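Researcher: Please translate sequence to structure tokens.
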Amino acid sequence: MIRVAVIGAGHWGPNLIRNFHSGGPSQVRYVVDSRTERLAQLEPRYPGVTFTTELSQALGDPDVDAVVVSTPTATHAPICRAALEAKKHVLVEKPITHRAEDAAGLITLAAAQGRVLMVGHVFLFNPAVQYVKRLVDEGALGKIQYVSMVRTNLGPIRGDVSAAWDLASHDVSIADYWLSSAPEAVSAVGGVFINPGIHDVTFATLRYPKGVLVNLHTSWLNPRKARDITVVGDRRMLTFDDMNLLEPIRVYDKGVKDDVSPSVVDTFASFRASVREGDITIPKVAMGEPLKTECDHFLECIRTGKPPLTDAVRAAAVVRTLEAMDLSIARGGAEVRP
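Model: Translation complete:
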């Protein structure tokens, strides 16, 4: 039995408590939050769990094996550092820290303590995301040319981080995973409309190795909730709609024909001849709960010592990209190397 302390009982914390305290190979021993009223709301649901405002109480208990951090991003670095120094395994919500320098320090500390440091980039545990990864790795789409990613909604509007740090962190982690690399250069622009100094919308272009372009549109100031991704390869293309729980992926056998088109395309027939239209395939993807898969993976890594899929090294690369986006926005959209 792996005994867990969950730090942070806000928006996402209850989901983590539920998954680690569901009668499986783990048990929640502590829930820590600075708000006594929030603890009072949750305490009746989990008899036997200690609810406290004191982080030191949970970290000082030698029976606690692991700490799960779901607090504002600015607090991640000090809480994770304290947990690792107390020789606890750590799962921290994304992004790992607000500065790449702090993430590097946590990586070094986790290695020195021999503890698992995993980051909650939950979309990498989505079966549809993993299905696309297999297609890319197998070359089923051909050479990837570009990826377009849209993540929008009306709210929730945050006051601690921008839409890029809250939303684009998901898409950067997905793009890095699919392309097996971090971007080489980043350019971005953003808009501030609600809270001073916090960007509510971001448009960014990431340049990956082998000439692959990734375009991101993130916003919490949009009338429509969208989680749309288009991947264009030179053999096939696909769309991924995360809002479609039954048929999230469509693979299009479409592309541009290999033969050179006429120099002047002056008829509809010659225009149509320059592209290839094939079948649309809707693969069956068995959808589960990605968060449960993530939590189970964390426990497996503790038991076996295997490296996490969403390890801190990859998470630190995401932070470097987000920092580059911030710098590019400050420079009026100039390209920045992470």
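Researcher: Any highlights?
Model: The chain has a mean pLDDT of 94.
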